[in-house]
Amino acid sequence: AQSVTQLGSHVSVSEGALVLLRCNYSSSVPPYLFWYVQYPNQGLQLLLKYTTGATLVKGINGFEAEFKKSETSFHLTKPSAHMSDAAEYFCAVSDSWGKLQFGAGTQVVVTP
Amino acid sequence: GAVVSQHPSRVICKSGTSVKIECRSLDFQATTMFWYRQFPKKSLMLMATSNEGSKATYEQGVEKDKFLINHASLTLSTLTVTSAHPEDSSFYICSARGERSSTDTQYFGPGTRLTVL
Fold first, then answer.
1. Which of A15, A22, A56, B65 is 20 to 30 A from A49, comparing alpha carbons?
2. Closest chain A residue to B94, measured at CA
3. What is the pLDDT of residues B34-45, one digit of tens each?
4. Alpha carbon A33 to chain centroid distance?
């Protein structure tokens, strides 16, 4: 069975500062990992995903994530936060049937 | 990326009535669609998986007679909340996945806010 743990339900960052959102997973098979962003009252938008190959994955809006098998982690980073990055972020792992298991989410607040 | 729409975006209904929510893949054929429920400030909970032309597979604890799912075509799935009650009020989100692989990206709709009075 798959599971995802997101450390920190709320993260506050200053505009221009590094954004780091932590995600650890548990999977009995090689995982497919995803980061999604959700703006208020909207659906989810895919930021990036890891399936196979290069462990450093680049996504949209300047985000990237690194798959570390030894640490069972898939942390999301962005070098410089922008006000528009304020949103809820979800890490997810997919099972072999393609069903997504989501983490609890991390609310990002960006302060001027 | 691919576009998935949901209709309506918001619905308010009286207790005891039924509500239908549509999920459409606009620019690709979705062999599989998923329905999620999201409570305020919570994560998404998978309710069911629907494959075109077959019965939906419901997650444990989800009442299949209450949440009727139909996936009649490769671009449309519907979720009908039957005999809705206030505790069914929630944000319902669908996602759709193409044909190529079970681990292909799911594309999410914008969600439907259901309020049952």
1. A15
2. A43
3. 999 998 878 889
4. 9
